Amino acid sequence: MKQEEENFAKSDHFNLTMIPGKFARAMRTCKIWQFFRFLVINIKMLIVVSKSH
Amino acid sequence: MARLIVMGGGVSGHTTATFAKKWLGDDHEVVVVTPNAQWNWIPSNIWVGVGQMQKKDVVFPLAPIYEKAGIDYRQALATEIHPNGKEGSDQPYIVIQSTKEGEEGKTEELEYDYLVNATGPKLNFDATPGLGDGKGQMGTNTVSVCTADHAVHANLELKQVFEKAKKGERQKILVGTGHGMCTCQGAAFEYIFNIEHEARKAGVRDMLDIKWISNESFLGDFGMGGLHMKVGGYAVSSKLFAESLYAERNVDWIIGAHTSKVEKGKIEYELLDGTKHEEAFDFAMLIPPFAGVGFKAYDKDGSDMTDVLFAPNGFMKVDAKYDAGAYENWKASDWPRTYQNPTFDNIFAAGIAFAPPHLISKPMSSPNGTPINPTPPRTGMPAGIIGKAVAHSVCDMIKNGKSAHLHEASMAEMGAACVASAGKGLLDGTAAAMTVYPVVPDFEKYPGTGRDTDYTFGEIGLAGHWIKHILHHMFIYKAKLKPGWTLIPE
User: What pLDDT digit, counting tens, does each position of A2-44 carry?
Assistant: First the structure.
């Protein structure tokens, strides 16, 4: 059984939501992808901060 | 020379005092009254609570910072406000009680021209039997991460749980809110996932049952009625993403819960459907509800006028619309813009200390009449922005007279950036990085979700952790007033 499928059976709550698969989980800690996301998130946050002052 | 007194030295009070002093210079006096000797970067307390930071990493002494800035620092508890002065004098003043070592309990009257209430909340542990010790402090049945000392204690208790798990004893961990009217679910959210992360690192995750309990009516409410964001071409509710994270990390949840009683190893709670239940635990971190710090206000003749300055929950009345009525009538314009007290134009409140007009989340109660809903968050970025706006207003009033234009910082017009840690680690940490715009939804301006979905987003990953870690150092740098501190936004 795939890791993401195991938890669906552990709780009725879990069964009704979405659980990320192997690729999505790997991307969360992929250094190259996350460096790119770091830049994107910072830009987005700076826009919100500038709109709020 | 005018004197500004800022009561409180947290995010909002520190921002107000330091900017006011910078703008007023030596022509006017800025006084900070706070019972604490140290400034605490509270968002990092959760890392102290899992042993990933030490107390010294999240606090620093206030006295040398204020001395360098030229701010008169009084380590004391403000207890009374006399906005009309006293017999024989129209000069308003506050009464403070020293908390400085060797001078504990010594009282003093401090006259002011302008007063900013930025005390933050009273951690109202005693609102839930067994959560407090009956004397206003945290009890012994649960732990907390609300202060650095609480977090140090929480880590010691958690380590014992991990040790038992290593020896093969199955352990039950419960994290969430300790009352039906709590706010600050975000801190508990961060703590539960940091515990889960540390448990995996320690190799004891399989021996732990980790459960969330909260007064939110749905996961991902966070006291803001949740948020909607665009992901993968969809506009989706934070509920879906929050539930997904809990399911992925095998953290079950109880929501819509009012914790009504805490005992050693057990809580009693009531759900929104009116049913009552119990939940056992070996380790519990339950956030207490917040209340005003309990100021008393007196008129010139000594009569009590606390209800003129403060709402019944102890928070200070400002320029909000407090008579908005039912949920259907709530508008973004109900929220305060200048944070000036409606009765006394030389008194302001900033950060958690101001009384919000109403909840942000939809109000809920059980059939038994128990209110179970998160109260509005006013911490972090909004607290800093409000503090700075109030400092601006007071400085302009001092320099240009009381008719000066007041600066505005409505939570219904400002956004907030929030980074919620889900585990600490330079290469394996994760955090949910989110922005909301605006904090208080405006359904007239943004029909549907109440927010601008171009500026409201969230995603979880290592990048979020890096940002949280950088923010930790950046805001402590700013609070220490090091070179260029004004360039770092609130």
Answer: 777 889 988 889 999 999 999 999 999 999 999 999 999 999 9
B3-123+293-400 classified as CATH 3.50.50.60: yes
Helix (H, G, I), strand (E, B) or coil at B92: coil
- What number of CA atoms fall less than 13 Å from residue B344's CA on the CB side? 27
Q: Which residues contact B214 (CB under 8 A, 6 or more apart)?
A: B176, B177, B185, B188, B253, B254, B255, B257, B374
Q: Tens digit of pLDDT for each residue in B431-443?
A: 999 999 999 999 9
What does the mean pLDDT of chain B come to? 96
- Whether the per-residue pLDDT at A53 is higher than 80: the answer is no
Q: What is the ipTM of this complex?
A: 0.96
What CA–CA distances, in Å, run from A46 to A11, A42, B306, B488, B490?
Answer: 39, 6, 41, 11, 11
CB B261 within 8 A of CB B128: yes
Two tokens at B91? 């000069």
B462 with A17: Cβ contact below 8 A: no
- Distance, CA of B477 to CA of B489 (rounded, Å): 12
Please report which confidence band the pLDDT of residue B230 belongs to, taking 50, 70 and 90 as the band edges: confident
Q: Give the model confidence (pLDDT) of B347-358 as tens digits.
A: 999 999 999 999
Residue B489 C-alpha, separation from nearest chain A C-alpha, in angstroms = 8
Output the pLDDT for position A2. Answer: 79
Neighbours of B388 (CB within 10 A): 23
Q: How many residues does chain B have?
A: 490
Spell out the alpha helix ranges (H) of B84-168. Answer: 148-166
Give the closest of A13, A31, A49 to B489, CB-based.
A49
For chain B, the farthest-separated pair of C-alpha atoms sits apart, in whole angstroms, at 72
pLDDT at residue A1 tops 80: no
Q: Which of B206, B209, B216, B243 to mutate to test the interface with A (most CBs of A within 10 A)?
A: B243
Which residues 32-51 of chain A have a CB within 8 Å of chain B?
Answer: 34-35, 37-38, 41-42, 44-45, 47-51
Amino acid at B20: A
CA distance B463 to chain A (A): 5
Domain boundaries, chain B: 3-123+293-400
Summarize the confidence of residues B97-113 as an average pLDDT: 96
B105: left (phi over 0), alpha (psi -120 to 50) or beta: left
Closest by CA to B182, choosing from B214, B143, B135, is B214
Contact A48 B247 (CB under 8 A): no
In chain A, domain spans: 3-52
